[in-house]
Amino acid sequence: MSDKRIIVVGGGLAGLMTTIRICEEGLAVDLVSFVPVKRSHSVCAQGGINAALDMQGKGDSPWEHFDDTVYGGDFLANQGPAKRMCEKAPEIVHMLDRMGLMFNRTPEGQLDVRAFGGAKQKRTAFAGATTGQQMIYALDEQVRRFEAAGQVKKWIGYDFQELIVDDTKTVRGVVVMNMNTMKLETVPASAVVVATGGPGYIYGKSTNSFINTGSVATACYLQGAKYANGEFIQIHPTAIPGSDKDRLMSESARGEGGRMWTYKDGKPWYFLEEIFPAYGNLVPRDIATRTIYDICINQGLGLDGENKVYLDLSFKDPDELDRKLGGIMEIYEKFVGDDPRKVPMKVFPSVHYSMGGMWVDAETDMTNINGLYAAGEVNYQYHGANRLGANSLLSCIYDGFVTGPNAVKFANEVKPASDFDVLAEKSLGQSEKLFEQIYAMDGDENARKLHQEMAKWMTERMTVVRHNDKLEELEKKLVELRERWNHIGIADHSKVLNQEAIYVKDLQRMMDLARVLTVSALHRNESRGAHYKPEFPDRDDENYLKTTIATVSEDGPKITYEEVDTSLIKPRARNYAVDKHATEGEDK
Amino acid sequence: MAEKTVRLKIKRQLNAESSPFWEEFEIPHGPSMNVISCLVAIQEHPVTRSGKKTTAVAWECSCLEEVCGACTMIINGMVRQACSALVDNIDQPIVLEPMTKFPVVRDLVVDRQRMFDNLKKVQAWVPVDGSFDMGPGPKLEESERAVHYELSKCMTCGCCLEVCPQFEKGNDFMGAQIISQVRLFNFHPTGAALKEDRLHSVMGKGGVAECGNAQNCVEACPKEIPLTTSIAEVGRQVTLQVMKDWFRK
To answer: Which residue segment(s) compose the domain that B79 sits in?
Structure first.
């Protein structure tokens, strides 16, 4: 084994798969995670993982999967990486199966597959409705093997603070904090991989966990990493609103035949089936969400006048529901108190996923900082303007296959830092200064209330419908909130697991990232995928078939654009009322 | 006060060495509240019921959907996840305490590393050759798959260990969590390659024979994993292994 080490920050699916690939290539890994890796947010993924295994002999192929992905993403995804991901998908599912993941089976004992949004083929392999949890466990077990063999050192309960970068813009390590003792440490590395997931907690209530702050991505952005397509935030159509968070009701509910309806003129109205006859309840998420939003907000047809519609499975065989959707049946029962086998579920859209993220090179997953890689939801690759359901688990795993070997190659080639101790001391000093500032905060502002204010503004203006005047006001508000952050008062001065101090640090970063998302949205004057502006209701390929790039500057995010790779499939109009091939030849 | 409120009584501890103490809180009641939203309300306004300024209560949480196991604590005397403890379904004052079988870090946060370390001891994994493409995995009968999927839902929360009379701080007993994982991996066609090693690791001190058959574990498991069936099955496998070992001598 080489003495070179690579740091992986984040122990969700992308971080674990990257770790496995690095270990297989013979290098050692320092795996940094502020939660035990089995408790990472990937456990919340429910419905399954897409792979064109053609288990039902209907002529499915990786190309069809690729075409669905690109069409579903409204042509904003770089086609090279998306195609490679779809081609690798069948191998990935087989690998997980070999690792012991308890995928549902057919009567013959083969992998069972189900339907998912934006696809006519059934290609989603699944383990009940807890596929993400089962995938995390399968990979966690493999990483534990490497840990037992001494090739992985886990830094559990350590919180990433900042990168250690030299003047050639090469990453040399990271600063972390032991949360139990609040002590800062530096860790050297020959390459660093960030796999820290999405930023949903910016919005307060979302389907994300409280741990999904986007804090690590923001720290990298503030140190010069580019952030791409930040405006593309997926709002999932079916979640149960809660007092702490909104709980996801998987798209697989519709994949297994679930129907969405509300009352219109006193009669049940199956609105998705009526408006989108070709795809019905399985339209992609951006489309379903905008439809529900329009029905509830503009038409006032939500159930009992509230912002809710039905997701109905009550007509299905309860045993089959338990076998295929047990996990979400249980969540609905436990958190709402009604039995979805008997009554329709009440749902409403909620912030769910970020298509945008850290900019990475299409071939290697390296960011614009040498030796810094980004894998999983935290990068911007594969999904374009809207992600198809069950493609996120796939992209997390696929990224591990890209990032792992490329980080190893970089680590093997890079010259060691000559002045690591000097660099490390400087970075450590900066992190210490920030915490000294936080510990000394005695102002009148309440950090939680500032977060709530930001969340309210972001949810109102940066979700389903966007208006330029409101986005401008929002940006001003975010600048104001960021200033008010300096006047927070803290109650807890302990040096043992001080969650308040850590939260105040993350809040600052969430505010910075919120501004990146907002400014990115402000600049894109068109409607595409999850980004919808009534003032500019159409897709505008001539001006905006481009990746948004945000770069840090003293005056806030600086926006530039980069060409999208459309070399394989010519962009065409996206219309789910008809078959996806029906619009071929229409330029749009 | 006319407004409806929620009362909580929380056992606190400033660090691993210090003595625990109690604090009471009273917060505004809201729709569909769970214990998590109560703890968030205390973070927003860390003041006790008697008006004394204090610090927010430390606790662990992640998914909030009862699939990650992080927010496990003792609520009104019962070990369970805070996310699925709905305020309207439980008595007040709601009494929160940290788990007792693991060392306290601060307040409601405990260190459950022992559970993860034990997974190493029993090699709770399928020994695949690697992640490269080697074709499909073994075929499984759906009914068998369904049984073992249930075992695979274990989220390492520790409820089964908290209620186990044999599992104590400082002793070696591995408990139901580990024994059930041994059953899962011994079942898997490739996982079975390590079956003998696994059985040897649960044969001696801290192993399956130390189970006192109180059957509390199966009652406490939030995922309703048939833990006592797993213990019986692994006990049977161990007995067979002992005989096998004996004949080999």
So the answer is: 5-110
If one counts every other C-beta atom within 10 angstroms of the C-beta of residue A360, the result is 28
Provide the number of structural domains found in chain B: 2
| Contacts with A20 from chain B: Cβ below 8 Å | 131
To the query of whether residue A254 is one of the catalytic residues in this protein, the response is no
Say how far residue A165 (Cα) sits from the centre of its chain. 26
Sign of CA dihedral A530, A531, A536, A542: negative
| Domains in chain A, CATH or no CATH each | 5-234+353-419 (3.50.50.60), 237-351 (3.90.700.10), 422-540 (1.20.58.100)
B 173-212: CB under 8 A from A: 185, 188, 190-191
Chain B nearest-CA residue for A249: B65
Of the candidates A587, A515, A584, the residue with the CA atom closest to the CA atom of residue A555: A515
Q: Residue A128 corresponds to which tokens in the numbers above?
A: 């009940």
Is the same domain home to B20 and B104?
yes
Residues B118 and B90 in one domain: no
* A197/B62 Cα distance (integer angstroms): 13
DSSP state of B86: B
The candidate with the shortest Cα–Cα distance to A411, out of A28, A11, A14, is: A28
Please give the Cα distance from A102 to A138 (Å, whole number).
9
Last residue of a domain, one of B86, B110, B134: B110
Within 10 A of A560 (CB to CB), how many other CB atoms are there?
A: 12
Q: How confident is the model at residue A584 (pLDDT cuts 50, 70, 90)?
A: confident
Strand ranges, E, within A249-344: 259-264, 267-269, 309-312
Q: pLDDT tens digits for A133-147?
A: 999 999 999 999 999
Structure tokens of A516?
């990146």
Is residue A418 within 8 A of residue A397, CB to CB? The reply is no
CA dihedral of A132, A136, A138, A141, whole degrees rounded to 10: -170
pLDDT digits (tens, 9 = 90+) for B95-135: 999 999 999 999 999 999 999 999 999 999 999 999 999 99
pTM for the whole structure: 0.98
**ipTM value > 0.95:** yes
Chain position carrying tokens 């860790």: A187
Annotated active-site residue in A5, A172, A285, A387: A285
- Which pLDDT value is given to residue B1? 47
What is the per-residue pLDDT for B2? 59
Which residue in the set B14, B34, B136 is minimally distant from A97, CB to CB? B136
- Residue-level pLDDT at A1: 58
Is the same domain home to B145 and B241?
Answer: yes
What gap in Å lies between CA A513 and CA A557, rounded to an integer? 9
- Residue B110 CB partners (closer than 8 Å, separation 6+): B98, B99, B102, B103, B104
